[in-house]
Amino acid sequence: MKSIKIIVVLIPTLLLTTFLIAIYAQIIPDETAKKKSTQEDCNREKLSPNQNIENEKLIDSLSDENLKTNNADKFVENIKVIGSKRIIEAVPNLIGLIDFKYEKPSTNPAVGFGQYTGMISSDYPAVEALAQIGKSSLPALIILIEDEQTKSLKSDNALYTIKIIFRNDLSKAVEFLETSVIDSTTKTGKERLQTAVAKTREEYIKNNTSN
Fold it and tell me: What is the DSSP string of 69-117?
């Protein structure tokens, strides 16, 4: 009888403990997510109101056809500033300009991109800016490859930008593109990305063979 009483007393305690553990298990991930979200918000809030306004003006300038036509130097300068400041919000606008060629010969070619230095990114300022923004540009670049005809200028520049972002580590570029093929939701998109994979893998093999 004494042991039965002990069990009867312990059952509510065990149930309460189990309940608390379950609640705690739910709270911890939520709190972790909240902390991460709060940290991201803090990072965004580091910009002063004036800086935000300046960035918005820079982004808006990318849609200014008059500036693009009549003052290409200033237009390109704005693109370069956006790249140097890594303004992620400008990615959609830059994607739209990925085939915009700066006609004036550059005396200051792009630097820091390994074997690609001073090539396409010098002629196409949006390519350089997207590369400077880095991996935050990748989703939009993949969509562009999926949407554009293979071997089109936009598609070629998008793939080129991906290679720059991976700092010429073509093995990582291949891995990323292969994952993108799996994630693609359309037949055409998969086919175009598979072509990009094959092209990048061929370049990777050629470089390793020559070395």
Answer: HH-HHHHHHHHHHHHHHT-GGGHHHHHHTTT----SPPSS---S-GGGT
**CA–CA gap between residue 90 and residue 188 (Å, rounded):** 27
- Chain centroid to CA 38: how far? 21
At 161, the amino acid letter reads T
Confidence class of residue 1 from pLDDT cuts 50, 70 and 90? low
Higher pLDDT, 155 or 28: 155
CA distance 119 to 107: 12
Is residue 64 classed exposed, middle or buried when 0-12, 13-18 and 19+ CB atoms within 10 A define those classes? middle
Burial class (CB in 10 A: 0-12, 13-18, 19+), 50: exposed
On whether the CB atoms of residues 167 and 134 are closer than 8 A, the answer is: no
Rounded distance between C-alpha atoms, residue 194 and residue 181, angstroms: 6
Burial of 180 (0-12, 13-18, 19+ CB in 10 A): buried
pLDDT tens digits for 75-129? 999 999 999 999 999 999 999 999 999 976 545 544 444 444 444 567 999 999 9
Question: In the block, which residue shows the tokens 């991930």?
Answer: 29
- What b/e readout covers 125-152, taking b as 16+ CB neighbours within 10 angstroms? bbbbbbbbbeeebbebbbebbbebebee
